[in-house]
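Lest this sound abstract, we let one protein speak, letters for residues, whole numbers for local backbone shapes, and leave readers to judge:
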Amino acid sequence: MITFEELSKTFATLIISYMLFLVILISVLLSQSIVERAKKRYIVANTALLLAVFSAYFLLYRSYYKIETEMIEFFLDFLDGTPVLLIVLGIILITVLTVMWIVNFIKWDRHNITLISVKEAVDDMEAGIVCSNEDGVPVLVNPKMEELCEYVTRKPLLDANSFWESIRTNNLRSGCEVIDQGNTLLLKIPNGKIFKINKRRINVDDVNLFEYFATDITNMYKASIELREGNERLERMNDRMRNLNDTITRVTIEKEVLNMKIKVHDNLGQSLLEAKRFLKTGDGNLTEIIDNLKNNINLIDTGNESQNNDDYKLMFKTAKDVGVNIIVTGLLPQDQERKRIISTAMHECITNTIRHAGGDELYIKISEMTGSLIAEFTNNGKPPEKKIRLSGGLDMLRCMVEDYGGVMKVESAPIFRLIIKM
């Protein structure tokens, strides 16, 4: 059987070169394990494998080329008679062990966070990031932040403190500007993009560092501007709606008063005709004629009073004019906004009591609960035949309550009930 030293130079060189390749490969894996802070057992196993492979390579090399050394003379004598087959089997075993080690290391690398994986993740971030020591020397920086620094300052990112100071003081290239300041800076660059840049102190392994983070918030910033403009337009529309509601309320009240005046006018004309007939013929009841004339005159005096009176007084007078008695339990609010809402609700409920419920009394209960005012409106008329749908005046009233920040609820059964909480 052929021994190792009997091999041709080509085959021997190939085996020795292969062993050298394994030594280099395992050395690289060992250094990678140390850098990646792999588990201790991986590093120990890799070191043992490296020593074994290097020893085999060293012995094969010296045995073939007859480089004798007293320290390894025993091993050289052993290799002199070793069949090539055993050496090849040994190399195959070492190769299998090396492959197993590589597979295990790859599995470990895929399932563990390593320094390389962290660096790759930071480099792939859409946001820019740089970490520096207190002197401003960067210890971690990704390409996005380097690109942003060079774009706005025309300088490479060598000093994070200088970069932050340039942004904070708006010392930037033409077209770049800081549109907000503080711990968070909003940086606008010529292409229209908006970056939010934060600075914070962090502690890593008892070392104080500064972290600078730049995030592209262009779409978010534009959306916030549009939202603010939309809110301003909505507020203007709400002001117009409030003015319109006030106008509608006044017009409605004036219409009811006008209708009542027409009715009083007709009743007064009838009373005058009855008085005239009584004077001519003596027909009729003099006491009833006099009472009717007094009532009509009182209504005329009430209707002639200024329409600028207190809202509550105006509602009470309107209710009295149309034959509805308002009974209030509790204290009506006197602040202008809630007074306007309650008086509008009174008007709607007076109309509902006459037109739909056929009643002649409106009950208003005012109470307070957890700092909120609760107004409850009911009447002595018949309950609604079906569920009430908010429309017209009730829908307008609901908008007024919600604009104030309150809540309105309408119940149809067992009786009509309007509840306002604000």
Observations:
- The two ends are 105 Å apart (CA to CA).
- Confidence is low (pLDDT under 50) at residues 67-79, 305-309.
